[in-house]
Amino acid sequence: MIVGILNYTAANSIAQFDTRPVSVAERRDWFGQFAASGPYRLVVARRGDQVVGYACSQRYRDHEAFRATVEVSIALEVSSRGQGVGTALYRALFDSLAVEPSVHVALAGIALPNDASVALHRKFGFTEVGTFREYAFKNGQYISSVWMQRMCHPAPPPRQ
């Protein structure tokens, strides 16, 4: 279950910034943003009837100026890490976004240190654009995040 993965990650790492467990009801609006088409997608990996991970694209900011920008996120159940599940999830997510002309750029914020996540994002064409240093506080420590971006549908060249 996705909420279980989120809650485990929140309790056991800095990769997610929630500081307390959340319920499915508390995540209902978050789940409600996703659709089978459009820029906001949720892709789920299963092993049998067990959810082992997810990847999603969601609204980056509420401002209309960011309507062509999505923020992507990925999370895996601990025993599924390092087995190609993340690669398969991102491949499916970016394949679905490739047919969405409304998505110009994808962003990802990665709490540091997280070499595996940085490497996964690089594998999918993300490049580093900057680091927010010590901008969050969790589990008694300040957390920095590297921000990365991937152009999905670059702007057409200007007409001559």
Description of the molecule:
It is a single chain. It is built from 4 helices and 6 strands. The longest helix is centred in the middle third of the chain and has 13 residues, at 85-97. By secondary structure, it is an alpha+beta fold. It is globular. The protein has a 6-stranded mixed β-sheet, sandwiched between helices. A hairpin with a 2-residue loop joins β5 and β6. The chain has helices at residues 2-12, 28-32, 85-97, 115-123; strands at residues 42-47, 50-59, 69-76, 105-111, 127-138, 141-151.
Which structural traits does this protein have?
alpha+beta, 160 residues, globular, 34% strand
Instruction: Based on Cα principal axes, name the global outline.
Output: globular
The radius of gyration is 16 Å
The first-to-last residue Cα distance is 52 Å
State the strand order across the main sheet: 1-2-3-4-6-5
Order of helices and strands: HHEEEHEHEE
Biggest β-sheet description:
6 strands, mixed
How many strand elements?
6
Mean pLDDT: 93
Q: Strand content of the residues, in percent?
A: 25-35%
Number of helical segments with 4 or more residues: 4
Helical percentage: 10-25%
Low-confidence stretches: none
Alpha-beta classification: alpha+beta
